[in-house]
Amino acid sequence: MKLLIKNGLLVTPDKTYKADILSEEGVIARIDKNISEKADEIINAEGKYVFSGGVDVHTHLNLALGDRKVSDGFYHGTVAAAFGGTTTIIDHPEAGEKDCSLHHQPDMYKKNLEKEAVIDYAVHGVFQRVDDAVLKEIPELINDGIPSMKVYCTYDNMLTYNAIEKVIDVMDSSGGLTAFHAEDDAVIKELQKKYGDEGRLEPIYHAKSRPDFSEADAIKQILKTAKGRPVYIVHLSTKKGLQVIKKAKAVGQAVIAETCPQYLLLTEERYNDPDGAKYIMAPPLRKQEDCDALWEGLADGTIDIVATDHCSFSYADKVKFGKDDFRRTPGGCPGVETRVPLLYSEGVAKGRITLERFSALISENPAKKMGLYPRKGSLAVGSDADFFIMDTDISRKISVNTLHHKCDYTPFEGYEATGWPVTAVSRGEVIVNNGRFTGKRGRGVFLPRTPSKKED
Ligand SMILES: [Zn+2]
Questions:
Q1: Comma-separated ranges of CATH 2.30.40.10 domains in the chain
Q2: Which residues have C-beta within 8 Å of that of residue 269, sequence separation ≥ 6?
Q3: Could you confirm whether domain 2-51+378-404+415-437 is CATH 2.30.40.10?
Q4: Ligand 1 centre and the CA of 308: distance in Å?
Q5: Strand ranges, E, within 54-135
Q6: ipTM of the complex model
Q7: 238 alpha carbon, distance to own chain's centre
C-alpha cells in the first residue's frame, strides 16, 4: 500500500518547506519535491500544512473509579483523538484494586486497547503503594516496554516522599522515568476540611482548596527528593510551579514539564458559572497571570509538552455525584480532540508560539521524552507514516455537537478555533478524511517504548 501526499507545506521543529511525502507499508519512504511515483492513494495538500501526527501523552480514555466511569472508552476516545490530529496516545490507568501488582493495570489497559484503539498507543504505569514486590517489578515493567510510571502526591494512592525516594532510586537505575501529579496533600486536606466545616462546598472552593503554592511546594519537594535524577511533572498549572521548574532547568536538573490547554486558556472564574462543576479537575483552573506565564513557558522552552489529561466524566455525572459538594464531583474534562486546533489557533495564529515550536510541543517533544522517537514524532524517512493535514482556512466554533467524543460537554464550548485537522494518517492509512472516519476499531498497535535518554 502506497500513499502519496502531494504539494503540502511540511512543518517540523526545524523548518517549514514544501514537499511531497510517499509512504510505503506504513513507513515514510520518501520526502522530496515533485514525487511522481505511482501510489494507491494520492491526496493533494496544496495550501495546507502537513504535521507529524499528534502525540498526546496524557489521556484517561477509559478511567473507572468505582461506580464512576468516563464517557468515552478507548474506541470513541481514539476516534476523537484522530479527528483532532492525534495519532498516538499514552494512556494513564487508575491505580487499580488494592494490592494489585505493578503490571496489573498496564496489562489490563493493553488488552482493552488492543480490541478498541483506532490509533497507536502506549500506557504508563502507576504506583498505588511501594513495597519490595513493587520495587522488584519496576525493571520488569520497563523491560516490557513501559518505562514511565506515575506517582500521586495527593489522593488515596499518594506516596510519601520516603517511598518516592525508593521509587526514584530504582526507576533511575533501570532507565525509567517517574511522572508526578504534583499537589501538596497536607495543604489540600486542611483547606478541604476548613471549607467543609464552613459549609462552603460550591465549585469555586475546589479551586480555593488547591492553591497555587500547593503545586509549587510539591514540585520543590519532588525535585529535592530526585537529587538531579530525571522527573516528569504532568499537567503544570501555575506560574509559581513554572518558576520552580525554570530555576531547576537553569542549573541543569533533568525535569520534563507538561501542561494542557485548559490551564492555558481557562481561568477559575468559570467555577462561579451556573455550570461551574464542569470545570472541576485537579489541579484546578487558575488565574489569568498563570495562563500568561504558562504561554511564556511554552515559548521559552521551560515547558516541553502540551498534552490534555483528557478525562471525560460527563457533566450529568458531575451533577449526579457532586451537585452540592465539590469534594464529591468526579474530576476531569475532555480535550483530546481540541488540543491541536486550540494550540494552533490560540498559540500560532495569535503569535504566542511559532509554527515550528507548535509542532515540537504536540508531536516531537512528547515522542522524544516518552521514548517513542523516531518511530513517532518525526516527519522523516524511516519513521511511521503518521501525520495530519491542517487547513488554516477553516474557522469554526468548538461545540460539543460537532466533536466526536462521547462526553456531554466540552470546557471549550464556543471557542472560535482557526486551523483544523482535515486528514489524519496512521501508519500510511488514512483514518480521517474530510470529516469522515475511515479507520477500523482495533487497528491501533501497542508501542513498546525505550527508556528515555537523558540528553534528549
Ligand atoms: Zn491525569
A1: 2-51+378-404+415-437
A2: none
A3: yes
A4: 8
A5: 54-59, 64-65, 68-69, 86-91, 120-123, 125-126
A6: 0.97
A7: 17
DSSP-derived 3-state class of residue 100: coil
**Residue 83 near residue 53, CB atoms below 8 Å:** no
Tell me which of 3.40.50.2300, 3.10.20.740, 3.20.20.140, 2.60.40.3450 is the CATH number of domain 57-369.
3.20.20.140
Report pLDDT digits (tens) over 335-371: 999 999 999 999 999 999 999 999 999 999 999 999 9
Whole-angstrom distance, CA of residue 444 vs CA of residue 94: 21
pLDDT at position 323 is 84
- Compute, in angstroms, the gap from residue 153 CA to the centroid of ligand 1: 13
Report whether 309 contacts 60 (CB < 8 A). Answer: yes
What separation in Å is there between the alpha carbon of 320 and the centre of ligand 1?
22
pLDDT of residue 453: 52
Q: Within the chain, which residue ranges are assigned CATH 3.20.20.140?
A: 57-369
Ordered DSSP codes for 270-300: GGGSTTGGGG--SSPPB-HHHHHHHHHHHHH
The CA 451 to ligand 1 mean position distance, Å, reads: 21
